[in-house]
## 1
Amino acid sequence: MNRFNLSHGPASAPRGKCPGSHKETRRDSRQLLVASALLGAALPVCQATAQESAATEQLRGWSSIVTRQVFEVADNVYTAVGITLSANSMIVGDDGVIIVDPGHSPTLSAEVRREFEQITDKPIRAIIFTHGHGDHFRGASAFADEGSEIEVWARANFGAETRAAAEAGFVSGGAGLSGGVRPADTQGGDLSPEQTVQFNGPPRPMSPEERATPVRRVPPTHTFTEERIELEIAGVEIELVAAPGETADHLYIWLPGERVLFAGDNVFHTWPNVYPLRGTNRSIRDWIASLDKMIAEEPARVVAGHGNPLMDNAVEQLTNRRDAMQWVYDRTIEGAMRFMTPDELVEYAALPEQFASLDYLADYYGSVWGTVRQIYAQEVGWFDGDPLNLHRENPVRQSERMAELVGGVDVLLARAQEAMAAGDPLGAAQLAQHVTRLRPDDPEPKLLMADALDALGEQTLNAPARHYSFSYANLLRREAEQQ
Ligand SMILES: [Zn+2]
């Protein structure tokens, strides 16, 4: 992953239903709207009490799992969490230390280094990148002093996902892949810090000066193409093992002496992000095979790419993760062979209770429903078997048919408003979207659709889907303001 900002989307200003409502904050108005939606009734807006959705509460719980601390994972193995966006580790050898995943920001990664220097003053001999996402490597200069001869290890295809995106033309300024191909941000990067709940993020937002500080790149000096290599660095026996999953360039690090495994982002406290909404292909089959290899090591402890290390039941967690992913894969393929469409498969391949009850497999960052759709897209392709999908119409023509059916565009808009008032934001958004197509210069349906998307986002557990809903709502409001 690149960034966790669990946001609360800004809501539109109240629409004048309440005397004195101008004193409400934007957040208050959104909460009232959501509270109304949750209660399933068209409550007078002024009487609804502000309350968060169950999804938001669960996300806050997820966020609170990680606090700033350094774990002693094993003798001579330490992992810092809650300082940079990723988990950053130090392995202490005879005459030096090895850093695993230095973090995303030279400033915050320097804080990690200071924490580690409280533990030992041995020099840094090597850095290992588990994969080529910026939240794991951009802070490397905090550990690699200029002129030092530190070994920097990664797989030979390091940066494969970023390169693939760049080759496809998806380059989004300094934001890496966070923008991707989408019109709005899937990671919440455009939402204000006040509207965010951090997961394993920095304890404070980076200042403008920190953001503006140029990052000195620390590229890999040593790479490998083999399935597995064995190294000895600072007297420590280390194995680096190819493990494609969240990215094609992933590796895991195995310390046979301590029986500690550094899993990178192939393991952390969420359903795996098999398909990032920003638009990238990831192979669930590779990911499952990599988990099989990790399980076979029988690790005592597993250091996750984000959040706290798995200290007690590492093999059990790895096995459940692997089995749940395999179950979703098998169920999706089985249903597809019975001519079920992706919309049907999302229900058919929902997790059974034995996996659904495990919090570390909840849809916090990846989602089961997104995984089902991705499996179908990868293994079957875009055609879902519906013959009408061979004869699709332009969206505007579809909306014209809908307006003709219900008796005109004004009726569509009125029905959308009624759905919103009745606590059905999905219905409201679907109807309002038709009106935005038929009246692209009218701000009213855009503002209504924005309110509906905020309400939908608020009820969504999956952080990227939530972010995209909020960010898209903001996009619609900006368009409406300009009209
Ligand atoms: Zn990450």
## 2
Amino acid sequence: MLKIYGRKNSNQVIQVMWAVGELGLEHVRHNAGGTFGGLDTEQYGRLNPNRLVPTIDDDGFILWESYAIIRYLCRQYGKGSLWPQDDRQAALADQWMEWTNSRFMGVFFPVFWGLIRTPKEQQDPDKIQQSVKATAELLQIFEHHMADKKFVVGASLTMGDIPLGSMMFKYYSLDIERPSLPNIEAWYARLCERGAYREHCMNSFGTSTEEWFALEKAGA
Ligand SMILES: N[C@@H](CCC(=O)N[C@@H](CS)C(=O)NCC(=O)O)C(=O)O
């Protein structure tokens, strides 16, 4: 059976779990990383020498790097659904995955990290504000792309929706200024209707670093 190693509040784990949920794969997830620890053991080092999460073990096939895991799971178990049948559609889905990694994460993650993973007294409001603004500007590209689409590459959910979509719960939950982005808001509303999205992506992360760790310890 598919095993996933990683705490459920890690963004990289969340996106893998959402894919697993959408594909309906039988699986077991083992808590690892963060306050659960376990990454420094010899056994974990053999699975993932980077000592990071997530790692998967699919009947003895070991894989790390969340984007590689999502692509593997979608190609292996979701051809024609999360992995588009058409190679060009698959390439476009891949493009938006990479865009999320190379462009969106760079501007949005400092917002999330600055507000939630940094103790209040160490926060830098100006830096956070700059990243909030940069995120809003960057999202205009995706807003424009979504003008005539229900999902990232067309009429149904694909792997292209997964990385960016998984971050949208955080984007829309944080107490930050957001521009009006009607196409993205409509897409996000569609994601929120999905059981797997609600289960894996819409978990409270608190409003401070203390709350974050308390929720993590509670396994929430
Ligand atoms: N590029 C890697 C990054 C993995 C990564 O940085 N994982 C973080 C959590 S998001 C981690 O393992 N941190 C140590 C910990 O959780 O203890 C991926 O996408 O899988």
